[in-house]
């Protein structure tokens, strides 16, 4: 084990911890001066005060501290941030050990210049910190693209985190063994070599695993796209049939109007034309309102689903409002699950107002930013409902219904970290909100 001055040891421990914290915060967010001081520099300086006592335990404490801060900020443990933290911690291990190994060998060859070598190793460690931050900045966007599946699939993300935890535990076990048993530089070289080889094998295995998962995800997306295409084609068929019906009605209306004109019954002809114009104006107003909002949804399957539900509401003469303020090309998460939940919520609203004297339904799809969206459906009530029992399997406020829809919604949502359901109710209305957020 190398013997260095207390100040040099303190600076070494501080830089080693900063080598984890600074690139981590650079990767997951903006490295502002406030973040650099409060979340990087202060923890590193404080933990380094106990460097000799804590040794490599300080890295474990840093990770636990950062995970605790994330939990306070409502970031789950199985998040992308945890993946980034563990990955950087593992990468830092061979960097620090290689620098320490080279410095130890130089100390043995040039004992007179030991202190100069120690200060030089600190500069090299600082240089490694700068290079790592630059590398994170350069490849940050590529890393986001490579890990986009981590935001959508919690099960895949948890597997990655589990693997990284095991790998990190092995790294720390090696470091603690080397510290407490004061291994020789030769043995340290063997450990570093074995670890680098292990990291290389791990990278190959992880690449194969991720590529296999991506292939599976692509197949799944293709199935989803096929189902959306089928829904879209059915929607086109409905529109085609509606156009044929319109042509048929148009011909019949012209024949009827011709009859009034032939009979020279001008007042009847005028009343008939006024009735036609009123009917067309009413239909056009409703259609144009929905078309404007639906055109902003660039997801064919979801757009077709909502068009179908809106047509059913219109056919049932239910006053309906539907609003989409911004263009939406993609929603975070599995589209099959999202479409299922939205379908169940809209069907539930339709069934709830079916027997009401003054029914009303309001829907909206809201985009807060590129990572957060909300779908709301609100319907009128004639009596208060027990919100606490709505999601119980078998419970229903409608006679003759099995009460499976909302229970299914809760089951889907419970399995997805990026989805949440909120319910608000009064004596006159109830609103369901599906919150969708990338994690």
UniProtKB/TrEMBL annotation:
Q: Which residues form the Sensor histidine kinase NatK-like C-terminal domain?
A: 335-436
Please list every transmembrane segment annotated in the UniProt record, as residue ranges.
7-24, 36-62, 83-104, 116-139, 160-181, 187-210
Q: Which Pfam families match?
A: HATPase_c_5
Looking up InterPro entries in the UniProt record yields:
HATPase_C_sf, NatK-like_C, Sig_transdc_His_kin_SpoOB
The alphabetical list of record keywords is:
Kinase, Membrane, Phosphoprotein, Transferase, Transmembrane, Transmembrane helix
GO molecular-function terms, A-Z? identical protein binding; phosphorelay sensor kinase activity
Which SUPFAM superfamilies does the entry link to? Answer: ATPase domain of HSP90 chaperone/DNA topoisomerase II/histidine kinase (SSF55874), Sporulation response regulatory protein Spo0B (SSF55890)
Keyword Kinase on this protein? yes
Which PANTHER family does the UniProt record give?
TWO-COMPONENT SENSOR HISTIDINE KINASE (PTHR40448:SF1)
Which protein are we looking at? Sensor histidine kinase NatK-like C-terminal domain-containing protein
What is the organism lineage in this UniProt record?
Bacteria, Bacillati, Bacillota, Bacilli, Lactobacillales
């Amino acid at each position: 084990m190398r013997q260095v001055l207390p100040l040099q040891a303190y600076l070494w421990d501080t830089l080693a911890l900063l080598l984890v914290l600074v690139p981590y915060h650079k990767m997951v967010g903006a490295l502002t001066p406030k973040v650099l001081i409060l979340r990087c520099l202060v923890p590193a300086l404080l933990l380094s005060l106990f460097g000799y006592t804590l040794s490599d335990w300080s890295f474990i404490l840093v990770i636990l501290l950062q995970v605790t801060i994330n939990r306070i900020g409502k970031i789950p443990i199985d998040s992308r941030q945890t993946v980034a933290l563990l990955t950087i911690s593992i990468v830092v291990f061979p960097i620090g050990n290689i620098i320490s190994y080279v410095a130890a060998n130089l100390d043995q060859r040039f004992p007179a210049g030991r202190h100069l070598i120690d200060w030089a190793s600190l500069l090299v460690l600082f240089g490694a910190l700068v290079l790592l931050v630059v590398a994170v900045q350069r490849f940050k966007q590529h890393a986001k693209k490579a890990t986009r599946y981590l935001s959508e699939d919690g099960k895949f993300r948890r597997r990655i985190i589990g693997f990284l935890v095991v790998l990190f535990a092995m790294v720390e076990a090696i470091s603690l063994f080397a510290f407490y048993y004061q291994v020789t530089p030769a043995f340290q070289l063997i450990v570093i070599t074995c670890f680098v080889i292990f990291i290389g094998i791990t990278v190959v295995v992880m690449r194969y695993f991720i590529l296999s998962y991506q292939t599976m995800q692509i197949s799944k997306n293709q199935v989803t796209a096929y189902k959306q295409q089928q829904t879209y084609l059915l929607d086109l068929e409905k529109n085609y049939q509606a156009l044929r019906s319109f042509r048929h009605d148009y011909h019949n209306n012209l024949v009827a109007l011709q009859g009034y004109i032939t009979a020279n019954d001008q007042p009847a002809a005028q009343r008939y034309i006024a009735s036609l114009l009123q009917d067309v104006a009413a239909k056009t107003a409703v259609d144009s309102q929905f078309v404007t909002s639906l055109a902003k949804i660039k997801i064919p399957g979801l757009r077709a689903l909502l068009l179908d539900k809106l047509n059913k509401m219109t056919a049932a003469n239910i006053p309906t409002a539907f609003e989409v303020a911004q263009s939406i090309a993609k929603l975070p998460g599995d589209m099959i699950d999202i479409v299922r939940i939205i379908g169940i919520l809209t069907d539930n609203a339709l069934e709830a107002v079916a027997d009401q004297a003054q029914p009303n339904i309001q829907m909206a799809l809201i985009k807060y930013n590129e990572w957060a969206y909300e779908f709301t459906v609100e319907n009128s009530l004639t009596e208060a409902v027990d919100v606490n029992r709505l999601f119980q399997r078998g419970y229903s406020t409608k006679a003759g219904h099995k009460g499976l829809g909302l229970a299914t919604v809760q089951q889907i949502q419970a399995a997805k970290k990026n989805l949440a359901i909120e319910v608000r109710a009064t004596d006159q209305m109830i609103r369901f909100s599906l919150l969708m957020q990338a994690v």
